[in-house]
Amino acid sequence: MAYNNDNAQAFRSDYRAAIHPLYSPWLHAAFVLAYGLLCVGLLWRSLEAVAPWQWLLIPATLVFFSWGEYQVHRRLGHNRTRFGRLFYKRHTGDHHSFFVETLMPYETARDWRVILFPAWLIVLYSLPLFVLWWLLSRLDGNLAALFTGSMLLGYMSYEVVHACEHLPAEHPLSRLPWIRQMRRLHALHHRRELMHARNFGIVHPLMDWLYGTLYWEPEAIHQQNRQQHRIRVALPAEQVLGYAAAPVHWPDWHPSSLRIYGREGALLAGERFEEDIHAGGRAGHLRWDVLDHQPGRCWQASARGEHGLHLLLTYACVEVQGGCEFVRTLEYGFEGWPMRLLNGLFMRRRIERESQASMQALGEVLASR
Asked: Is the entire prediction scored with pTM above 0.85?
């Protein structure tokens, strides 16, 4: 059976339940960065009269670190070995079960536990580097400090970029050009049939290119923008999803929905309907196809509109104490660059506000039922 979002969500629940109550993701991340920067600062304080050519050791060392990271990731992270069995369990066993291609963002800060290396690892990693610094400093103090400091910078860059690759799509950092490209490569790496063979680079794809393991697919148009909002409702999940998955109700709670052309009731996979909208300051017409409907669990539909607009809308319900949590995920994009530019400048923020308002209105409507 294929491993899918439902499997990943079930794994996430079990993994989160096993995290120690005293675990602090903020302390975890702060320690790694503070310790790494402190070590780099101490090493580089010893620099004296650095020759221009010696500065080239920084990029050269970062490339060397990338080679080492590639080898460890590929050889130990995705192959069972006696030496690397703990790393394999944590990486392929935990990380690749927690995140799949279609479910890459973390949802709470405590999820950093499965993204970041254990906090103690940077200390263990630094100890042989300090021994190497002591030995190399006998030959040249500048080269010793630049090399070992850059190796620590490589470690921290891995942690930071990898965390960015699991940010929510709507986060400002996710839209930076380099981060966006690496996020796409990393998402492809998390595809089950690709994860043992492609895209092992985390910070950049140089080693994948050199070793022939680089794989690229352009993201689906609707994935250009992703917005997710959630509310808790004191009603059973089946009742909540049954109401939300009936598009005829949308004009009652979503400010962008003007009119629905379709039958009443929750629509099933394979059914179609149309909608008049006014979203992001622009009027339009959408043609919808229902892709999935699992009562009490999820409902999904895709749509096309004017100006090359593509949308993917997903509703999900999770039972919680006293009711359920309703999650609405909207992914959309445009085929042409003029509309992409217009969306980035003006429309996206308005659509975000409209989506937030819709969730508040949905909660009020459901509370009155």
From this structure: no
